[in-house]
Automatic annotation (TrEMBL):
Residues 41-60 bind DNA. Keywords: DNA-binding, Transcription, Transcription regulation. Residues 19-78 form the HTH tetR-type domain. PROSITE patterns: HTH_TETR_2 (PS50977). This is TetR/AcrR family transcriptional regulator. The keyword Transcription applies. InterPro entries: Homeodomain-like_sf (IPR009057), HTH-type_TetR-like_transc_reg (IPR050109), HTH_TetR (IPR001647), Tet_transcr_reg_TetR-rel_C_sf (IPR036271), TetR_SbtR-like_C (IPR049445). Gene3D superfamilies: Tetracycline Repressor, domain 2 (1.10.357.10).
Length: 217
């Protein structure tokens, strides 16, 4: 007796308009989280995105899901900037400089404090996005070190923490005044990274693991 071959059903692909709506929601949320902080009403995000409230909740069942998507999208854009920098040929330090300025414009430091204690910081999507950024930044820095242009006593953590600090203030504050000085101060920092170094740094290079380690008294 022959067994009937099961009919394989196609998994429906999201409609183009549904994908566009999702992208509009994430863009609007990123802008409003940066401007007003994490407690901005979802209704206001829907209004700026030009979609109905139901569309927001259909894509993101709760605020944590939307915040996570926004943070991941910023990390993905930062990774894309690092990949473009790695694809450049020629001046390795110049490519690193351009990446750092682009990363600061993403204002990731204004979004990360929104991850509250109840937020799953070890969510697989966040972990994957974070690891991709870290690996690409490490590759950019390693190339500049091998070219003799970047001082070798700098770690990925050193670079990331300064970019985060200089691209503040946190979300929901008056950013306009500080924003005028971000790239000026970043360039001062970058000039201090050039080899040969003119000073000896105290301590050791900061790694990403150092940044994740909890503070102890």
């Amino acid at each position: 007796m022959q067994t009937a071959t099961p009919v394989q059903t196609k998994v429906p692909r999201p409609r183009a308009d549904a994908l566009r709506n999702r992208e509009r929601i994430v863009t609007a949320a990123r802008e409003m989280f940066t401007e007003f902080g994490p407690e901005v009403p979802l209704d206001e995000i829907a209004r700026r995105a030009g979609v109905g409230n139901a569309t927001v909740y259909r894509n993101f069942p709760d605020r944590d899901a939307l915040v996570r998507e926004v943070v991941c999208s910023v990390m993905d854009r930062t990774s894309e900037a690092a990949e473009l920098a790695l694809a450049e040929t020629g001046d390795a330090f110049g490519a690193l400089e351009r990446f750092v300025h682009t990363a600061a414009d993403e204002r990731i430091s204004a979004l990360c404090p929104m991850i509250q204690t109840t937020f799953d910081q070890n969510h697989p999507d966040l972990e994957a996005a974070r690891e991709r950024v870290e690996q690409l930044v490490a590759a950019l820095m390693d190339r500049a070190v091998r070219a003799g242009q970047l001082r070798p006593d700098i770690g990925v953590g050193d670079l990331m923490i300064v970019v985060a600090q200089l691209s503040r203030p946190p979300a929901g504050t008056d950013c306009d005044v500080s924003d005028r000085f971000v790239h000026r101060h970043l360039q001062l920092f970058l000039d201090g990274l050039r080899a040969p170094a003119h000073s000896v740094l105290p301590g050791t290079a900061v790694t990403v693991e150092d940044l994740r380690r909890p503070c102890t008294d």
